[in-house]
């Protein structure tokens, strides 16, 4: 199989769920399609909207990976109620859906991969990313849980695919706040502008393409 | 005394306080200087940075009012930790400073105006403003307390001046969230982009210049 | 009408509202009925459950005041979502109901007392109360808004009655958290045990009966 | 070594850390020493205070397990800022200390067990525990992160010991809120009474000793 001429990265967002009419992840990701990224614009960005469905989200993700052979895969999802760009550290091998997904499925305490490892750590340089985002004036944090819904499912599935297919990709998951237009309908909920989310995603991709070791800077939580 | 040729409005922001190096209120307000506002650009905007000091903030405010004879006076302050544009409903006649102001004063349970009324309600059409902001996709809320620090002090002092000087002005107080660059240093704190704050202030001024009765729409709290 | 032989205090709680089956205020207040309070058990405690209704709550309150001639009137209400005993500083002259009351009424931006003052400050020694509660290990705070629902309505009405009837009473309003049994149904909501609420109310009554000047200790908010 | 005559369980709490003078976990756990638990009081409770130190906490835990051969090991820690009994679902193989531990160590992004699995799922019936606690009127929740400090370290180390020593124990980790006396010093922080924490721990132990399969009830989060 011939490799693609131009190196690329893949960024995914989600379809709306949980009563929302938009998903800020796809709203932002969609704007990145075809842009060049990396030093000397070394990579182009491909994007993909994933369904918010346990059964089909990973199929769509794997197809896109197989199609594009990306150097980095960045999956992005909505975290309504969070204030900052959340850089996820770890995905766990369980689905426990508080609400049904968009296909009506609500798995409870089901492994994502039967006999898979309990968790995968991200394959992104999360501390370097954190430092870069903060230096750019973007509220951001390391998160130690991506939940137990489709977002965690996709993050786990992504990292399992890297492992099982022996792909030497970087990749991971980022949660983003509501857009201001959504927060209007969630009294008191924090939000982030689409411009800032877009800027964040570009910074994360650039940082990931640097291929330097991650930094050891403290960004943990006591609980 | 000759009246000014061109009708105007006055918008104030504050100097930084509490360890911050910027105050998002003045950062945004400062950008409005000299802009035209209202139907057919009927009014120009004057701006003024107020010191974050109990003793001198109102002097500076009153001087600006006397100088410009504005139709609307909109005072703006930082509410670190809030997520939305907070449209203040009421100011109370007490200073109770949790931290010293920028001049080192920390009044505790002191009336702002000796023998003044316990409170003044805002002289802005707050429900119309709320509706307009939300229709423009801006997270916003009615707040029933402006605190007991310099912000409440200035709001009370403003409305007392309207009353005591028999000015037929509109005016009131708006609290705004941290800027993203500030929230970086306050883990988990919500923020709002300067563009959105600026857009909010212009919408509030335009709405205030409409001189229509306020709407009766529910925006209260149970506690 | 002859004055009562034994001096007394009056403590009120509310009926449940907003879908709750109990109201922690009445659950706690109800346990105080007939207890002796004050130095040398100088006063007995009368209690009264108020309807959560704009129209009739104050009638019930005024009847109880007229009946008992209490030295102190302490009104207590539920503040679901707050973590601490909230000692209210001020009540404002407006009803703005986010939800209908138990009689189906939902007043919006209506004065509680036509031509009444914009606000009344509490007639309780709130800083002494705060200090006492904290010394007793009870999470507590001064609150600068009692909301715009029936709680604020009752607090304003109480203080207006003191004023209009020239009663030399002490009195005010305290908001309390959910009970743990309620918080079970409000994911992540803080709660306080009934024992601690009861202990708080007794401490507040005792402190109020001391008739010493209030303390000047800082307990304000910047917004 | 002869097995103990009487079956037992082991419950651990922590020493104070982070500037606190008490740790609510040990305050509550300490009260359980020697109590009988389980159907027909089948088991006695042993307790152990663990140091809040990465290096020595697990040594102390393993010594206690080796000494008592408990059927259940329940480790308990403080989660200041949480409102509910937090039943931890998973521990991850990383230390990332936001603050130094009590011995002055601050590991950053260090594996707890070199080449250990990325995570261990709890060995407690967490959904049955959740249901029982809620039926008993105790605010409680499943948590998907125990942080990256000594609490997560101990939970991971406990479950790794079960695995490496092939112990057929049940066990896991519970986070508890501040005590009210602590919350007094953390403005706005939620708290839980010691009585309720004690009642929770006994209910968790009883539920664990039932040896029934866990329930499949939804208790996940979307992020």
From TrEMBL, chains A, B, C, D:
Q: Does the keyword GTP-binding apply?
A: no
EC supergroup of this enzyme: hydrolase
Which of UniProt's keywords are assigned here? Cytoplasm, Hydrolase, Protease, Thiol protease
Note the HAMAP family from the entry.
Pyrrolid_peptidase
The protein's annotated catalytic reaction(s) are: Release of an N-terminal pyroglutamyl group from a polypeptide, the second amino acid generally not being Pro
Kindly provide the name given to this protein in its UniProt entry: Pyrrolidone-carboxylate peptidase
Any single GO molecular-function term of the entry would be: pyroglutamyl-peptidase activity
PROSITE patterns given in the database record? PYRASE_CYS, PYRASE_GLU
Q: Name one Pfam family in it.
A: Peptidase_C15
Source species, domain of life: Bacteria
Q: Where in the cell is it found?
A: Cytoplasm
**Subunit composition?**
Homotetramer.
Protein role: Removes 5-oxoproline from various penultimate amino acid residues except L-proline.
Name the protein family.
Answer: Belongs to the peptidase C15 family.
One of the record's GO cellular component terms: cytosol
- Active site positions: 88, 151, 175
Q: EC number(s) on record?
A: 3.4.19.3
> Main localisation, per the record?
cytoplasm
Gene Ontology BP annotations: proteolysis
């Amino acid at each position: 199989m011939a490799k693609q001429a131009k190196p690329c990265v893949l960024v995914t967002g989600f379809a709306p769920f949980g009563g929302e009419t938009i998903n800020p992840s796809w709203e932002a990701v969609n704007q990145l399609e075809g842009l060049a990224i990396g030093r000397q614009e070394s990579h182009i960005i491909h994007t993909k909207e994933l369904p918010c469905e346990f059964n089909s989200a990973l199929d769509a993700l794997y197809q896109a990976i197989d199609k594009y052979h990306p150097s980095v895969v960045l999956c992005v999802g909505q975290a309504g109620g969070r204030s900052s760009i959340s850089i996820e550290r770890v995905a766990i091998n369980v689905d426990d859906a508080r609400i049904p997904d968009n296909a009506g499925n609500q798995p409870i305490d089901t492994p994502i991969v039967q006999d898979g490892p309990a968790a995968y750590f991200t394959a992104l340089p999360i501390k370097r990313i954190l430092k870069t985002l903060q230096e750019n004036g973007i509220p951001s944090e390391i998160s130690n849980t991506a939940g137990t819904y489709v977002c965690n499912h996709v993050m786990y599935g992504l990292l399992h695919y890297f492992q099982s297919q022996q792909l030497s990709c970087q990749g991971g998951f980022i949660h983003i706040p509501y857009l201001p237009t959504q927060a209007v309908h969630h009294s008191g909920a924090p939000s982030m502008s689409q411009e800032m989310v877009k800027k964040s995603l570009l910074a994360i991709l650039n940082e990931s393409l640097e291929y330097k070791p991650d930094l050891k800077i403290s960004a943990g939580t006591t609980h």
